[in-house]
Amino acid sequence: MADRANVRSIDAIGDCRATLIKYIDAIRIAIGETRSDVLRVQRWVGETKKHEWTARGKKCTQLLANARSDLERAKIARPDAHPSMFTDQLRALDKAKRNVTECEHKLKMIARWSRELERERMLFQGGMQRLARIIDGDLTTATAWMSNLMDHLNNYVQTSAPKLPRAEAADMKTTTARRHGGGHPEQISEGEHDEPAINPSETTTPDQGPDDAVESNE
Predict the structure, then answer these.
(1) How far apart are CA 78 and CA 116, in angstroms?
(2) Within a domain: residue 173?
(3) Is residue 207 domain-resident?
(4) How far is CA 190 from CA 82, 96, 172, 185, 193, in A?
(5) How confident is the model over 113-159, as pLDDT tens digits?
(6) Contact, 117 vs 42, CB < 8 A?
(7) Is the pTM of this model over 0.90?
(8) How many domains in the chain?
(9) What is the DSSP letter of 208?
(10) Domain span holding position 26
């Protein structure tokens, strides 16, 4: 772990935070639009197309009943006629049967795909919820953390630096020099406590007089 932070630009942290906020907003918009698209498709299949083919199935069922009635009336009108005489009625009946079969098949497929879409929507919702938790949790917390970090760094930059021990020692030497009337602080500090040197030959004991000192020198 580093002993100090290597922060070269506070503005870079602000730019990163602004970009992250834009990313969060874009992801939230994309999630909302995707959910809307899924619900739109699901409603189109499960509601719109179901109603359409249900109504068409009712109409085809009615046409089938009419075709059967037309065939029966034609047979009653000409009981001794050859079956080939009822070709138009038979074709109309076959067409009505095919239409009814198609409507039933479409309704079965709509029911099947409605179940499939609901299952896929649940899986999609699970994935989107995990992504939403990351957006609302980790990334939002990161933006708040970077904001607090910028505030701390700005306060740190505006705080005056404390005096170092060397600077305090220099101030003390300057004060001492001023008290002694000027001069370089180092010269005063070196000489202010010096005492005059004593020559051993000039020292005399209390019992020795001047004459004794002369004799000792001779």
Answers:
(1) 53
(2) no
(3) no
(4) 146, 125, 15, 9, 7
(5) 999 999 999 998 888 888 888 888 888 889 899 888 888 888 877 77
(6) yes
(7) no
(8) 1
(9) -
(10) 10-158
